[in-house]
Amino acid sequence: MANTNNNDAAVQWSASSTKSLNSTSRFDSDAVSIHVDAVQASLQVKVDNSGTPASGDYVDVWIKWSPDATEYDTDEHAMYLGRLDTVAANDPGEDPATRTFTLNVSGKQSFKLTSKANQGGTRAITISAIYNEHRMA
Known about the structure:
By secondary structure, the chain is an all-beta fold. The protein contains no helices and 10 strands.
C-alpha cells in the first residue's frame, strides 16, 4: 500500500488559475474532483490586492462540499475556512496573503471554493489556490 501526497492541482475559475474578485459578490471556483483514495488534503489559498491595500481589504473563503458531485452546499451553509487580510498594518495582514487549510475529504466526491472580497467593488483582489491530496492506495 503506497501513500502519496504529491497530487496537487491548481483550482480553476472558468478554466483559469486565478480570479479577480472585483465586486462584493461571492465567486465560486469550478468543481474540484476528489480522488476515491484521498483521505486528507491541503488547500493553499493566496490573495493579492491589485492596488495599495486599505482598511477592510480582506477575503473570506468557504468550501462547498458535494457527496455526489452534483449537489453542493448552499452559500449560507458552506463551511467557513477563514479570512485573509491584505492590510499589512493588521495582525494578521500582508499583501499578498497566503494560508494553507487542512481538509478532511474522506467520503466526499468534489468541492467548490467560494470567496468574497469585502471591498471588491472598489479594490479588486486576485485569488488563486492549490489543492493537494494525500492518498492511500
